[in-house]
């Protein structure tokens, strides 16, 4: 009889253990994105999902921790923000309420949810902040003085890196469309960037992690510019809207912030020293 009871007790423990493994906190998102780059809001919103194979699974409370040190998050603590236990079943749009976030900085976060009385920790996630203020931009707009109607423009600038790199992020935009290259390689697979806006009020920028594209020694940027709606003329059989008065020739703004292994930093920007020529696209 004791043997049978012992066997059943072991089976119950095994079944409970298996059940616990079927519950997970996953699909962590910051500002609706997975591991986003260039978040430029100082109080981002967090979301997650509860994954389980069983029914009647619900969240009773949660705790969010945020840190700029991965070791802190691995230890389930947050020196930038620890929300403490909050009794709620909310899993969407939970606002960051911690210490002020720095621009151009990497942060780690994770969440612990109490699900049917059981504490379940998510895996760590990450987000990188963009440039919060205009004063964070050290770059200058680069364009040409001559009239551009159909052609595309190609810009190039060489620069040197003499130390071992820890991380490097680029922030770039254009009045018009751009394609950005680093050491001959396109930095993304996007097309027609940035999205068209009212350039007189807003220009959108993108952020890229280019740590793996840099090398010690000589490097070079390449930028191709297109007209988009910034430099739009009315021609037969060509799309346009309104009176299509051009706002000017295309131009771009670029800034790369580099952090070295020794803790020092450098910035490479658009401005003086960029050379240009007409590109291979003759009508755009």
From TrEMBL:
Residues 163-283 form the Bacterial alpha-L-rhamnosidase N-terminal domain. SUPFAM superfamilies: Galactose-binding domain-like. It holds the Pfam family Bac_rhamnosid_N. Transmembrane segments: none annotated. InterPro entries: Alpha_rhamnosid, Bac_rhamnosid_N, Galactose-bd-like_sf, Ig-like_fold. This is Bacterial alpha-L-rhamnosidase N-terminal domain-containing protein. It comes from termite gut metagenome.
């Amino acid at each position: 009889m004791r043997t049978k009871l012992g066997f059943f007790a072991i089976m119950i423990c095994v079944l409970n253990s298996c059940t616990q493994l079927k519950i997970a906190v996953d699909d962590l998102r910051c500002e609706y994105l997975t591991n986003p780059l260039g978040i430029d809001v100082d109080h981002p919103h967090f979301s997650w999902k509860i994954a389980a194979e069983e029914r009647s699974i619900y969240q009773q409370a949660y705790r969010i921790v945020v840190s700029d040190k991965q070791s802190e998050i691995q230890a389930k603590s947050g020196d930038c923000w620890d929300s403490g236990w909050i009794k709620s079943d909310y899993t969407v749009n939970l606002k960051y309420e911690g210490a002020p976030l720095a621009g151009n900085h990497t942060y780690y976060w994770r969440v612990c949810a109490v699900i049917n009385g059981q504490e379940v920790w998510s895996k760590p996630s990450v987000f990188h902040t963009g440039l919060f203020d205009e004063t964070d931009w050290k770059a200058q707009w680069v364009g040409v003085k001559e009239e551009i109607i159909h052609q595309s423009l190609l810009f190039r600038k060489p620069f040197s890196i003499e130390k071992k790199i820890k991380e490097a992020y680029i922030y770039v935009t254009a009045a018009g469309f751009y394609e950005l290259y680093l050491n001959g390689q396109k930095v993304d697979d996007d097309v027609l960037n940035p999205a068209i806006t009212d350039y007189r009020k807003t220009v959108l920028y993108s952020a890229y992690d280019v740590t793996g594209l840099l090398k010690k020694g000589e490097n070079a940027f390449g930028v191709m510019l297109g007209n988009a709606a910034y430099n739009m003329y009315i021609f037969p059989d060509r799309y346009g809207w309104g009176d299509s008065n051009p706002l000017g020739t295309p131009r771009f703004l670029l800034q790369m912030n580099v952090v070295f292994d020794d803790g020092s930093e450098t910035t490479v920007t658009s401005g003086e020293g960029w050379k240009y020529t007409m590109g291979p696209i003759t009508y755009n």
